[in-house]
């Protein structure tokens, strides 16, 4: 069993010390990407539940920059310590609470090694104590001694009702958490031990706080709220945290000169900035503390100059922002976007260098509109899926490589992430050989004005990289929406069926100029129109040899000759409208599923029809989400949803979705798998490659199931043997040129006779452009730069050459 | 990062017609020059029987109509004063090979010779008993003789200086209506007659009978020696025939694409680029059906055809490929001219020379001059230079800029002011996608609303836009009823709109009626 399609943006990622790797929490594992190529290099596997935080052990001196150690915490209650260069698990700590968040302040302190003995390492974890059934679980922030692998008893910093995300200041001096309308901040003593007292400060606000950030050097705290305001407290905890000497004098000044600070909050002043129109998700101080980065639902990264409040923008990122992380390399940082994409930014100039994108997640708006089902489409021969995304694009995603292949802009329109969706790519179809794609986009009307359905045919080039638009058809079925598009397995023909009561057969035509057959125009034209008693056509399918076209007209199935457009037969009379129709491989069976979407008291049915007798072979009462058939034999698989809870005769816990594998001739399922989140999922047989998947024969097909959350799994339908895979990770190789070569290009090769003593030049750690790019105030201090600069120029003698 | 997409109108279906071939483009590039107010407005009312171009630059041309011959400047296409010393209708005209003399026949049977420049009458060649419809000078070098053919079915070879006929060439049995001289020999010429025969004459063989006789099978209206001297094209009836003279008068091809009688032929050239090799010869034929066809006799194919609204009688094409003249039976002269590019280049060359001359006198500017700071700004890159291009500025329409700033009402008004219905509809569709159209409409002030109503009146019944605009018109009236009632301007707009909509409804009803009549018939036809 091979799974994929994980979310990259469930948690903030972490950079390695040399900023060449990016550690991303992907479900139960941590994936490591190269920042120079954007490809995955390796994966840390070990946790049994979702990983909730990853912390890279920072380098304390330049020599330890190459060290690659990290701590991870997970919902399975374990904290693990890894060497992610290898990758190798070093240590596991089991604390038996679900961990929602973890910070390790002592990693950020400069260690005092005066005693020669390393002090114990303490982590602060946001835990969830799962109690018995019926009782709400309790949450708290606890302290854990990582060196001794145990929780420090009795130290609970806070009890909360919801799992809180713990934020740590860049200096490691403070940790904080936001809870509803207040911030809690604790000071971590410089010498942390098991029994220390904590000073704490609370800051209050009138709205729910969504995120917070600490200033790297000063006692400044920023917080964002749900309305889009950014609050900036300066001088936080001057009374509490500073060693109070003249507390009396200070009390007098209270209430006089503290603009914006609420009641008894311990802060000097509170400023409010308001630019974002909705919830602020990202707050991050730049490493020198001069700027504050903020971002939210609009998909715009805003850079605030802290002293003046002046703004700079990085607009049109295209998706709500979730996290912003900077790297040890000052020229590199990353933004995590809600569409499962991590953008790497070149820093002072804020250009997007490259993006690491996972499978597009289903839109949160998609459930709002009936008929806006955005089901992923499989290309069984190439092992690709086409995923319609929110920003009018279709993403091609490789199932076996678990990475994005390409994206196609379907509709040339700007996407504003926060807006209500009015234009949507709602149908995608791929021809069997993958050479043609067909998309349908719909624009919703505004009070009955201006609705538009557009059908587009695309030609896919080799390797699915170039996709070019072939034909655009506006309103193919007047203003009725298209319910289904099916390609004929043989030849250039497609059929589109509409709820408006007709279907159209489209054919691909080439036009040659009569004089010199050089100019070629090709396009799709309407070949025939058919309708049956003006009934809404809900789905259509071609038989595997392409000789019969089956179109579901409401509750019956009509069979047509696609070439001559004549009605051959009408079969069936189901209780509910037919939603799914597939010919089973090369056998004589047709399988149909019927259910009325939405209504609870339905009579769902799965029916297998014998085409030779034109009657029902067998049927089940199942609510079917998807049907797929294998290309050669007569097996097919269905994705069946569990019954709605209202009519369930069993308890809701046992109601599970399942995948059933049938042979068309027998009504007994060959095998059953139980799955979850089948709503909006998809199922397909995918032909597997011998190179990529071991454990199956070269001719075998693999069953691919993708659930509503766009996580997919590949199953071997015929045997118990699991599909294992050697993942084709690319090696972390850095092709950047350094030092002299990056400026002047490669040196010409000297002949050895002319110059016996060749000095091999040592590449420096940084490129030239890296040192000096950006405005001068954003550069590191000159003494720091100078050595780097000189180092990059110097040629180092590595040894004596004879 | 997503780029900013401009608002684009819907695509239109591309016509199934193929893109014009380079040759069709070439023939279409002969356009009526805008700076000349002649033709077809300045018409002669009488049929233009004949057109001839001077063989010398600037290739003046003449046209005969009624009893006069008009000379046009080849450079400006302006008409020069006409020669009108004819006693009867002038019928045929020909330039001498040096372009200095001009011969014209008239219906009284006289051939007149004029000085082309001074228009003075030099000779009168009398001898034909009936109208002279064909006059031609030898094309190669002979300046002393000319041929003429008349309705008395005689072809005469004249010595111009003495005004005497050298030979009477007999053989035709009907009117001789056309003739042409060989382009390579001064002694060879061809004549065509209404007795369906085309005769090739050689004056060196003075036995007064033709060297060759070709049967066109229709009264011959026009005959043309092709530049090689070995081929002849003849026109008569509604076809054009190509004959091989050297090969013993063999018929090579018969072009039958005109619908009515072909009246005239002339040589045309397709100039591609520059140089002699780039020119290809074509036969231009005009007919009473109003078509001018371009025939490629090398590939034996029609390469282009243009339709004119009147029956065509005569055609001429300047030897430098710049002008094409067609005369019609109603006296209109269609002059087409191609734009010349050569002259402007010469001017540029002169200027550059000047600059170079000035340069040595100028010293390298010192920093105290303002010019110092501008130096090198107009420097052109040399060949080996590596060019760093400035990123191309994206041009955005005003409504695009406004849409980008979310100023929706202003964007709609900006689009309406541009008066391009496609872009207005595109902006409206974008506003629908943003769910802002209704708000825009309700925010428009009176003048902007009048603009919108005028737009709706004009385009809401057009089938391409009707789907969106009729619904929108309804909505606008619904939303702004109060404002419309209170303003006179808007009320008149609404009145116009109402009138147009009623008209459209009438049309639709009559169309439905027609459909009602036709559909049973179609049903019956399908059944049988």
TrEMBL record, chain A:
Residue ranges constituting the WD repeat-containing protein 75 second beta-propeller domain according to the UniProt record: 392-641
Region listing for Disordered, in residue ranges: 243-264
Pfam families, alphabetized: Beta-prop_WDR75_1st (PF23869), Beta-prop_WDR75_2nd (PF23769)
WD repeat ranges per the UniProt record: 202-233, 273-314
Keywords: Nucleus, Repeat, Ribosome biogenesis, rRNA processing, WD repeat
Residue ranges, compositional bias (Basic and acidic residues): 253-264
SMART domains linked: WD40 (SM00320)
Cleavable signal peptide: none
Subcellular location per the Swiss-Prot or TrEMBL entry: Nucleus, Nucleolus
InterPro entries listed in its UniProt record: Beta-prop_WDR75_2nd, WD40_rpt
Protein name per the record: WD repeat-containing protein 75 second beta-propeller domain-containing protein
Annotated organism of origin: Salvia splendens
Automatic annotation (TrEMBL), chain B:
Pfam families in alphabetical order: UTP15_C (PF09384), WD40 (PF00400)
InterPro entries in alphabetical order: U3_snoRNA-assocProt_15_C, WD40/YVTN_repeat-like_dom_sf, WD40_repeat_dom_sf, WD40_rpt
Protein's cellular compartments: Nucleus, Nucleolus
Region of interest called Disordered, as start-end residue ranges on this chain: 1-21
One cellular component (GO) term of this entry: nucleolus
Record key words, sorted: Nucleus, Repeat, rRNA processing, WD repeat
GO terms under biological process: positive regulation of transcription by RNA polymerase I; rRNA processing
Keyword Ligase attributed: no
Protein name: U3 small nucleolar RNA-associated protein 15 C-terminal domain-containing protein
SMART domains: WD40
């Amino acid at each position: 069993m091979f799974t994929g399609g994980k979310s990259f943006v469930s948690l903030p990622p972490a950079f390695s010390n040399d900023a060449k790797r990016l550690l991303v929490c992907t479900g139960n594992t941590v994936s490591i990407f190269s920042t120079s190529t954007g490809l995955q290099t390796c994966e840390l596997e070990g946790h049994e539940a979702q990983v909730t935080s990853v912390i890279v052990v920072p380098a304390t001196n330049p020599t330890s920059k190459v060290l690659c150690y990290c701590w991870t915490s997970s919902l399975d209650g374990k904290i693990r310590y890894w060497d992610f260069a290898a990758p190798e698990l070093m240590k596991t700590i089991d604390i038996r609470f679900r961990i929602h968040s973890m910070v390790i302040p002592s990693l950020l302190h400069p260690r005092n090694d005066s005693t020669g003995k390393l002090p114990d390492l303490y982590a602060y974890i946001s835990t969830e104590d799962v109690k018995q059934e019926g009782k709400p679980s309790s949450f708290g922030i606890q302290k854990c001694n990582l060196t001794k692998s145990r929780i420090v008893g009795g130290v609970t910093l806070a009890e909360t009702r919801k799992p809180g995300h713990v934020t740590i200041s860049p200096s490691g001096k403070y940790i904080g958490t936001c809870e509803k309308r207040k911030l809690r901040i604790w000071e971590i003593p410089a010498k942390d031990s098991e029994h220390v007292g904590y000073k704490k400060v609370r800051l209050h606000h009138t709205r729910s706080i969504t995120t917070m950030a600490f200033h790297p050097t000063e006692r400044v705290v920023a917080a964002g709220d749900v309305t889009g305001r950014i609050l900036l407290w300066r001088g936080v905890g001057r009374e509490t945290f500073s060693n109070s000497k003249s507390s009396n004098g200070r009390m007098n000044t209270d209430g006089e000169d503290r603009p914006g600070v609420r009641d008894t909050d311990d802060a000097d002043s509170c400023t409010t900035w308001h630019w974002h129109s909705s919830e602020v998700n990202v707050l991050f101080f730049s490493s020198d503390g001069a700027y504050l980065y903020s971002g939210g639902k609009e998909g715009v990264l805003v850079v605030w100059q802290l002293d003046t409040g002046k703004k700079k923008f990085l607009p049109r990122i295209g998706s709500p922002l979730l996290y912003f992380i900077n790297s040890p390399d000052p020229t590199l940082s990353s933004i995590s976007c809600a569409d499962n994409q991590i953008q790497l930014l070149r820093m002072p100039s804020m250009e997007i260098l490259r993006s690491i994108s996972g499978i597009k997640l289903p839109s949160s708006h998609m459930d709002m509109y009936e008929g806006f089902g955005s089901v992923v489409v499989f290309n069984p021969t190439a092992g690709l899926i086409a995923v319609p995304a929110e920003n009018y694009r279709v993403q091609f995603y490789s199932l076996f490589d678990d990475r994005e292949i390409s994206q196609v802009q379907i509709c040339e329109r700007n996407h504003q992430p926060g807006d209500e969706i009015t234009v949507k790519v709602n149908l995608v179809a791929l021809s069997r050989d993958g050479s043609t794609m067909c998309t349908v986009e719909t624009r919703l009307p505004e009070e009955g004005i201006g609705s538009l359905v557009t059908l587009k045919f695309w030609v896919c080039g080799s390797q699915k990289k170039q996709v070019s638009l072939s034909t655009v058809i506006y309103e193919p079925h007047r203003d009725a929406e298209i319910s289904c598009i099916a390609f004929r397995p043989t030849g250039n023909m497609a059929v589109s069926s509409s709820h408006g009561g007709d279907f159209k057969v489209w054919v691909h035509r080439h036009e040659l100029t009569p004089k010199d057959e050089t100019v070629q125009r090709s396009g799709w034209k309407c070949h025939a129109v058919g309708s049956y008693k003006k009934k809404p056509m809900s789905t259509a399918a071609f038989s595997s040899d392409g000789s019969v076209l089956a179109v579901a007209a409401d509750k019956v199935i009509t069979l047509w000759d696609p070439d001559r457009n004549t009605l051959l037969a009408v079969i069936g009379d189901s209780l509910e409208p037919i939603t799914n129709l597939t010919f089973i491989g090369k056998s004589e069976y047709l399988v149909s599923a019927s259910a009325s979407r939405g209504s609870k008291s339905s009579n769902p049915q799965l029916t297998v029809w014998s085409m030779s007798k034109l009657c029902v072979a067998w049927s089940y009462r199942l609510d079917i989400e998807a049907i797929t058939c294998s290309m050669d034999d007569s097996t097919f698989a269905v994705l069946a949803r569990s019954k709605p809870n209202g009519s369930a005769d069993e308890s809701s816990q046992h109601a599970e979705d399942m995948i059933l594998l049938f042979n068309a001739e027998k009504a007994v399922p060959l095998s059953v798998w139980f799955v979850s989140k089948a709503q909006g999922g998809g199922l397909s047989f995918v032909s597997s490659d011998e190179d990529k998947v071991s454990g199956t024969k070269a001719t075998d097909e693999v069953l691919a199931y993708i659930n509503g959350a766009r996580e997919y799994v590949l199953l071997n339908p015929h045997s118990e043997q699991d599909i294992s895979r050697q993942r084709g990770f690319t090696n972390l190789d850095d092709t950047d040129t350094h030092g002299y070569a990056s400026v002047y290009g490669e040196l010409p090769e000297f002949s050895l006779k002319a110059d016996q003593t060749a000095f091999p030049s040592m590449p420096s750690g940084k490129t030239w452009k890296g040192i000096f790019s950006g405005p001068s105030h954003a550069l590191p201090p000159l003494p720091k730069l100078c050595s780097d600069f000189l180092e990059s120029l110097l040629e180092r003698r590595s040894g004596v050459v004879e | 990062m997503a780029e900013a997409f401009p608002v684009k109108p819907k695509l239109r279906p591309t016509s199934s017609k193929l893109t014009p071939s380079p040759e069709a483009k070439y023939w279409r590039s002969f356009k009526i020059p805008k700076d000349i107010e002649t033709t077809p407005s300045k018409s002669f009312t009488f049929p233009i029987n004949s057109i001839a171009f001077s063989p010398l630059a600037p290739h003046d041309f003449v046209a005969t109509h009624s009893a006069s011959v008009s000379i046009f400047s080849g450079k400006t296409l302006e008409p020069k004063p006409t020669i009108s010393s004819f006693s009867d209708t002038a019928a045929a005209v020909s330039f001498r090979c040096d372009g200095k003399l001009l011969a014209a026949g008239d219906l009284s049977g006289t051939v007149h010779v004029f000085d082309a420049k001074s228009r003075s009458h030099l000779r009168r060649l009398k001898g034909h008993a009936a109208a002279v419809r064909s006059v031609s000078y030898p094309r190669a070098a002979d300046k002393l003789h000319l041929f003429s053919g008349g309705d008395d079915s005689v072809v005469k070879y004249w010595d111009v200086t003495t005004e005497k006929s050298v030979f009477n060439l007999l053989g035709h049995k009907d009117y001789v209506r056309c003739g042409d001289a060989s382009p390579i020999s001064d002694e060879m010429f061809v004549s065509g007659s209404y007795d369906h025969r085309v005769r090739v004459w050689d004056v060196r063989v003075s036995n007064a009978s033709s060297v060759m006789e070709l049967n066109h099978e229709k009264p011959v209206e026009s005959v043309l020696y092709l530049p090689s001297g070995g081929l002849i094209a003849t026109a008569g009836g509604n076809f054009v025939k190509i004959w091989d003279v050297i090969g013993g008068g063999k018929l090579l091809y018969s072009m039958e694409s005109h619908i009515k009688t072909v009246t005239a032929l002339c040589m045309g050239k397709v100039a591609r680029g520059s140089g002699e090799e780039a020119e290809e010869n074509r036969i231009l034929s005009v007919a009473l059906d109003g078509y001018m066809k371009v025939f490629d006799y090398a590939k034996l194919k029609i390469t282009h055809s243009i339709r004119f609204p009147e029956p065509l009688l005569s055609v001429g094409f300047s030897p430098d490929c710049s002008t094409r003249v067609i005369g019609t039976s109603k006296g209109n002269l269609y002059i087409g001219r191609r734009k010349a590019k050569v002259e402007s280049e010469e001017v540029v060359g002169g200027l550059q020379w000047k600059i170079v001359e000035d340069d040595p006198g100028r010293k390298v500017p010192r920093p105290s001059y303002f010019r110092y700071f501008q130096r090198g700004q107009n420097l052109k890159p040399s060949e080996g230079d590596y060019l760093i291009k400035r990123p191309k500025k994206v041009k955005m329409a005003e409504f695009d800029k406004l849409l980008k700033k979310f100023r929706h009402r202003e964007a709609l008004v900006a689009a309406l002011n541009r008066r391009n219905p496609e872009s207005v509809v595109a902006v409206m569709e974008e506003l629908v996608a943003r769910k802002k159209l209704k708000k825009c409409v309700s925010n428009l002030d009176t003048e902007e609303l009048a603009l919108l109503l005028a737009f709706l009146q004009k385009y809401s019944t057009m089938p391409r836009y009707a789907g969106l605009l009729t619904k929108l018109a309804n909505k606008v009236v619904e939303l702004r009823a109060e404002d419309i009632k209170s303003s006179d301007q808007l009320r008149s707009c609404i009145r116009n709109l109402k009138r147009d909509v009623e008209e459209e409804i009438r049309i639709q009803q009559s169309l439905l009626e027609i459909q009602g009549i036709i559909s049973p018939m179609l049903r019956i036809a399908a059944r049988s």
